[in-house]
């Protein structure tokens, strides 16, 4: 934008020329109006070539809180807020003193100390020599817009509850910290902490007090680290401390980080008081060291793995990330990915183990799941059932087991020689608790045409950790169809005798860990005898699992056990006759 050259308006107007006077009056009137409009809208100041204020309008006085007398003769330095670096004003002066218009946003400070923002245009007026003789600055108050922008920024990068940086800002700080380690050679550390059982505090004392604890924890964390360290809140009860500029020597950096982590752990364990209530909670801490060689996206992940480890080791602990932890996690991730494929590619098979009567003749079978993986080979349930349960994949897989087993039962039912055989399937707690379970069993029976009287569902004691009444109701609905229930691995979990009596069970299965030492360990022998007594009292059948020797079978028989399962009578084998072309597994 070009500067404006000054004109001496009056010098060229002849005094007696009336039409011209009229024109002049009109021009002056118009100018007056323009000035009034400008004054009503903008903050205006005029300075001489050195920047000394020679004119200000009312709005300037209002916003700066200085009187006109105070401003005239002063420079704009009186309203300098210190917000902008020197280079900012150097650039401004360079621009206007060379005759060019400057535009920009400036943060000023009024006499009472308040900061305000103005969108500013400074126009130089040039003298005959082409150099500026004065500067007119026109400003608009944009404080509200700036505050809104600041608020939006704060909301995007800070946690509203504690005012700490949020995950986004933390990620950015990790990036900067990591880059800085390259030039400065030092190490950094990330300390991730999570309150143990915070949910209980929220549930028992209410979210309001829970929030107060989090705010106090944030303050305490800030006080326990250096000003230059970042304390952030990731969400919930998870906080992070980013320690920068540690020693380049990793051992020293580690010692320091562990000392700080210990200090944090103790500070948090000291308890909190809010609204007269005392709150106590320990924290688990995961720590990782990093420098520019660590992939930035891995830093938080590593601290998270270490935290997970701290929780697994019983909480209220500090754990350091190490690479073997990473390979365990990666292996887990690979297994989960393979299991998802296993569902799609139908890599599961059922094996069948005989359950024999006192004479050693098969009265039925238990269906046991196997995973045939192209590289891993045949995998037994211990290697994947837990993961299927955790991920929820047990639902489609369990449904496939149920349908396949029912089809097998139906096939046996068509042959005189096998029509009497029962078939037991294992049902995990998650599967049994699924609201659709009863309908699925009914459907599997209906579709296959299997005899429900020949189907056993094996549940473990862990299933009964939730609402027992509801579970009994569910069992009864299936009992009504003719399906029977076994309590599997009996003796390994916690069974209350009072509800054991009320469960509509047909059978107890003595866990093989008791059978194994039945002849050598008097305690195990006593437990097995007691279970057999108990079963007689509750009028339940008993199957002894894991029978491997004749002596074990004899002992059990002598104590009135009438059914056995174990390698002595046959291990789990594939039944080639079983049709295994179910596509239903993909259905869920
Ligand atoms: P479980 O239901 O108690 O099954 C008996 C386990 O003992 C089977 O292990 C079987 O192979 C093993 N076994 C049988 N006789 C002997 C013996 O004489 N000596 C020894 N040492 N072991 C014997 P498997 O097949 O590895 O299954 C382990 C567990 O996985 C099962 O224990 C069951 O809880 C679970 N499982 C198996 N298939 C399924 C399934 O389809 N669904 C669900 N949810 N769980 C299943
Ligand atoms: Mg079983
Ligand atoms: Mg068992």
How would you describe the overall organization of this protein?
This protein is an alpha/beta fold and 588 residues long. Helix content is 44%, strand content 23%. The chain contains 20 helices and 23 strands. The strands form four sheets. The chain has an eight-stranded mixed barrel, surrounded by four helices. Strands 1, 2, 3, 4, 5 and 6 form a six-stranded mixed β-sheet that branches. A five-stranded mixed β-sheet has the order 8-9-7-12-13, sandwiched between helices. A hairpin with a 2-residue loop joins strand 10 and strand 11. Helix 7 crosses helix 8 (207-224).
Give a topology summary.
Blueprint: E1 4-5, H1 18-41, E2 43-48, E3 53-56, H2 58-64, H3 68-71, H4 86-97, E4 102-109, E5 115-126, E6 132-141, H5 143-157, H6 167-184, E7 188-195, H7 198-205, H8 207-224, E8 230-235, E9 238-243, H9 250-269, E10 272-274, E11 277-279, E12 283-290, H10 296-312, E13 318-320, H11 323-345, E14 348-357, E15 362-373, E16 377-379, H12 385-391, H13 394-413, E17 422-426, H14 429-433, H15 437-448, E18 455-460, H16 468-481, E19 484-490, H17 497-502, E20 507-510, H18 512-516, H19 522-538, E21 541-544, H20 550-558, E22 563-564, E23 573-574
Parallel strand pairs: 1-5, 12-13, 15-17, 17-18, 18-19, 19-20, 20-21, 21-22
Antiparallel strand pairs: 2-3, 2-6, 4-5, 5-6, 7-9, 7-12, 8-9, 10-11, 14-15, 14-22, 14-23, 15-16
The structure holds ligand C2E and magnesium ion (2 copies).
């Amino acid at each position: 934008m070009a500067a404006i050259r000054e004109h001496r308006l009056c010098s060229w107007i002849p005094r007696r020329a009336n039409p011209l006077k009229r024109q002049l009056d009109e021009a002056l009137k118009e100018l007056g109006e323009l000035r009034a409009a400008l004054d009503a809208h903008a903050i205006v100041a005029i300075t001489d070539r050195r920047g000394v204020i020679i004119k200000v309008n009312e709005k300037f006085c209002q916003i700066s809180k200085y009187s006109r007398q105070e401003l005239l003769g002063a420079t704009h330095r009186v309203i300098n807020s210190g917000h902008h670096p020197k280079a900012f004003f150097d650039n401004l002066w360079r621009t206007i003193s060379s005759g060019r218009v400057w535009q920009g946003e400036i943060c000023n400070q009024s006499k009472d100390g308040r900061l305000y923002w103005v969108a500013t245009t400074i126009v130089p007026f040039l003298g005959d020599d082409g150099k500026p003789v004065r500067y007119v600055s026109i400003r608009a108050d944009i404080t509200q817009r700036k505050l809104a922008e600041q608020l939006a920024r704060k909301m995007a990068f800070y946690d509203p509850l504690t005012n700490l940086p949020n995950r986004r800002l933390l990620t950015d700080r990790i990036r900067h910290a990591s880059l800085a380690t390259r030039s400065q050679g030092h190490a950094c550390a990330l300390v991730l902490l999570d309150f143990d059982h915070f949910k209980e505090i929220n549930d028992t004392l209410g979210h309001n007090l829970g929030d107060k604890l989090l705010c106090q924890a944030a303050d305490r964390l800030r006080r326990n680290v250096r000003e230059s360290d970042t304390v952030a809140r990731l969400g919930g009860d998870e906080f992070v401390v980013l320690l920068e500029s540690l020693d380049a020597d990793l051992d020293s950096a580690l010692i320091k980080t562990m000392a700080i982590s210990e200090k944090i752990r103790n500070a948090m364990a000291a308890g909190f008081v809010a609204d007269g209530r005392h709150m106590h909670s320990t924290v688990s801490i995961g720590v990782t060291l990093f420098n520019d060689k660590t992939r930035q996206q891995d830093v938080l992940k590593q601290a998270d793995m270490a935290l997970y480890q701290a929780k697994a080791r019983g909480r209220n602990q500090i754990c350091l990330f190490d690479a073997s932890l990473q390979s365990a996690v990666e292996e887990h991730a690979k297994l989960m990915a393979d299991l998802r494929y296993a569902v799609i590619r139908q890599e599961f098979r059922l094996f069948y183990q005989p359950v024999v009567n006192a004479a050693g003749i098969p009265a039925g079978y238990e269906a046991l799941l196997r995973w045939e993986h192209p590289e891993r080979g045949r995998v037994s349930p211990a290697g994947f059932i837990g993961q299927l349960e955790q991920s929820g994949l047990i639902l489609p897989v369990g449904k496939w087991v149920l349908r396949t087993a029912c089809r097998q039962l139906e096939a046996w039912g068509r042959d005189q020689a096998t029509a009497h055989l029962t078939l037991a399937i294992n049902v995990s707690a998650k599967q049994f608790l699924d609201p659709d379970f009863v309908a699925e069993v009914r459907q599997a029976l209906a579709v296959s045409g299997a005899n429900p009287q020949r189907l056993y569902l094996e549940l473990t004691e862990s299933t009964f950790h939730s609402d027992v009444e509801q579970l009994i109701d569910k069992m009864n609905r299936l009992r009504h169809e003719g399906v029977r229930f076994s309590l599997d691995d009996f003796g390994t979990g916690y069974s209350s005798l009072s509800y054991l009596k009320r469960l509509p069970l047909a059978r107890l299965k003595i866990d093989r860990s008791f059978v194994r030492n039945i002849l050598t360990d008097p305690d195990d022998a006593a437990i097995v005898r007691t279970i057999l007594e108990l079963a007689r009292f509750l009028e339940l059948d008993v199957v002894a699992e894991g029978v491997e020797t004749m002596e074990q079978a004899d002992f059990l028989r002598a104590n009135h056990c009438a059914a056995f399962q174990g390698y002595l009578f046959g291990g789990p084998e594939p039944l080639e006759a079983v049709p295994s072309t179910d596509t239903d597994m993909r259905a869920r």
